[in-house]
UniProtKB/TrEMBL annotation:
This is ABC transporter ATP-binding protein. The keyword Nucleotide-binding applies. Residues 13-247 form the ABC transporter domain. PANTHER family: ALIPHATIC SULFONATES IMPORT ATP-BINDING PROTEIN SSUB, TAURINE IMPORT ATP-BINDING PROTEIN-RELATED.
Length: 271
């Protein structure tokens, strides 16, 4: 593990016995998260992997503060929090762009909210637009962009506010394979150089092993973290990392877990 991943004493994010029950007490009640606890330290890259519908997005939204848990507590730097703040920013699966605003305005939005002004805003907006390969598209509107480009705007917007913790819900799912690999490397670069902490949902085992310092494996619903797998491969990682025997072993561990959980889902008639 590199120096940036050396653990500090107080976790940047800690969550204790989180439960999320949708429509509690109603016939359509769904127990989405059950007694989920964990600690995330500065500089970690955490991926969450689990079968479809197990509560991954619910967990991310809860950790961001967008969703209030039915019970349990979230701590940022040791203090309990009860809603969103500037320390955590979310990159959504469905982009969540404002269609009436240009690429530039979408990326600048969070910075204005944070009270930033003038050239500081401009420099940051342009830096992150360039980083995701969208320079030249600043004045375009979302409807003029492909799905992959829209997703890159969403990623630039998340990065631009420079949060301590970036929460990403399948951020690369709409991006073509080539851009996806570039974005994976870019996210890792940012994480290592700027000591960012990332929590990341993906359905791709390969992506999770490539990016993560630790992977949370979730059970079928009600979602629980049933195992944490530390990926002990040093950063920076390159395409050659994928040729290491341990890389393949990690992939097999994750795959065996997922297969087991999906089988459980089938047996319960939910898949
Ligand atoms: N607002 C809501 N109201 C009621 N039920 C919900 C709500 N949001 C999610 N659910 C249910 O909670 C469970 C967990 O959903 P969630 O989206 O967190 O799972 P997920 O693991 O992210 O799914 P996927 O892998 O398909 O993206 C699912 O059964 C889902 O139908």
């Amino acid at each position: 593990m590199t120096e940036t991943l050396v653990k500090t004493k107080i976790p940047i994010l800690q969550f204790d016995s989180l439960n999320v029950i949708y429509n509690e007490g109603e016939p359509n009640q769904v127990h989405a998260l059950k007694d989920v606890s964990g600690e995330i330290h500065e500089g970690e890259f955490i991926s969450i992997i689990g079968p479809s519908g197990c509560g991954k997005s619910t967990m991310l939204h809860t950790l961001d503060g967008l969703l209030q848990p039915t019970s349990g507590t979230i701590f940022v730097n040791g203090s309990p929090v009860h809603g969103p703040d500037g320390d955590r920013a979310m990159v959504f699966q469905d982009f969540a762009l404002m269609p009436w605003q240009t690429v530039y305005q979408n990326v600048e939005f969070g910075l204005r909210l944070a009270g930033k002004k003038g050239s500081e805003i401009h420099d940051k907006v342009m830096h992150y637009i360039k980083l995701v390969g969208l320079d030249g598209f600043e004045q375009k509107y979302p409807h003029q962009l492909s799905g992959g480009m829209k997703q890159r705007v969403g990623i630039a917007r998340g990065f631009a506010v420079e949060p301590k913790v970036l929460l990403m819900d399948e951020p690369f799912s709409a991006i073509d394979e080539q851009t996806r690999e570039i974005m994976q490397e870019e996210v890792l670069k940012i994480m290592l150089h700027e000591k960012k902490t990332v929590i990341f949902i993906t359905h791709s085992i390969d992506e999770a092993v490539f990016l993560s310092s630790r992977i949370f494996l979730m059970s079928v619903r009600p979602g629980q973290i049933v195992e944490e797998v530390k990926i002990d491969i040093p950063y920076p990682r390159t395409l050659e990392t994928k040729l290491l025997p341990e890389y393949q072993e990690y992939k097999q561990i994750i795959w065996d877990h997922l297969k087991g959980e999906v089988r459980r889902q089938y047996r319960r008639g939910e898949a």
